[in-house]
Design a protein that fits this description.
By secondary structure, this protein is α+β, with helices and mostly antiparallel strands. The chain is built from eleven helices and twelve strands. Helices cover about 40% and strands about 30% of the residues. The chain has a five-stranded antiparallel β-sheet, with helices on both faces.
Amino acid sequence: ITATQLEAALSNLNVLVALLDKDFNFIHVNQAYAAVGGKEPEFFIGKNHFDLYPHGENEALFHRVLATGESFTERARPFEHPDRPDCGTTYWDLSLQKVAPNGDSAEVLLLTLIDVTEHVRTIQKIGESQQKLKESEARYRILFNSGSDVILVHGSDPKTGQPGRFIEANDLACQRLGYSREELLGMSPTDIDVPGYPRNSEKIFREVARAKEGLFESLHRAKDGREFPVEINVRFLEFRGETHVVSIVRDITERKRAEEERARYAQDLSALLNATRQSAFLLDVDGVILAMNEN
């Protein structure tokens, strides 16, 4: 194969072609090869490849191919232009082989290069984006699991507000309810609500769906059958065309116990005041009447 035939065959491809003698002096380059260096093809003829592009590793590679006759191919080989540092690192699919251009035994190397820089940089950007996404997800997971309340995320029917399956649950949700995360993601809020709760659920769901947020109480049942009262703060979010509900669930067992104790205290106090037929008052330290009996 002649240099002219090579040029004709590769002139319509984005392939850089160079022929070098046994001392690595340029015999021929195509227009694409010359254009990368901002030169005309004639500029390269007779010049030494490694005088223009000094690189010890590449020079050793050229010597090996010339000595052994074994072709060499590498994908996305990095290269830095010594006379164009603004280009940064570029990447090339490189092929180097020993050929006989005129059918004789002359030692000539055929170098072909395909610029894959944009492809490699795109892959690098995707990798960087994936890494940033992983870091972002890690930060999100830390925040998601660092609160003192259960956090559950589920779908919702946009018309009725009826809850769909859970798509996310924090660690505390798993601990409080006794389910693994995988188990919870196969369930919905109705699976952890005690039947009959929340009270007036149809009305609550409609109002929450209309307002896109809400606060109400319910009664949850854990996997082991334990029941406990909760306060649920919900907010609707639109994400990628779908409606999601973020529910922050607080265990209000202690609050309910305190309310019961206050109610019992009030009842006992009322019974004490009404135990006498005389008028009786309960005063604070400033003399303000807090309670009185029926008399």
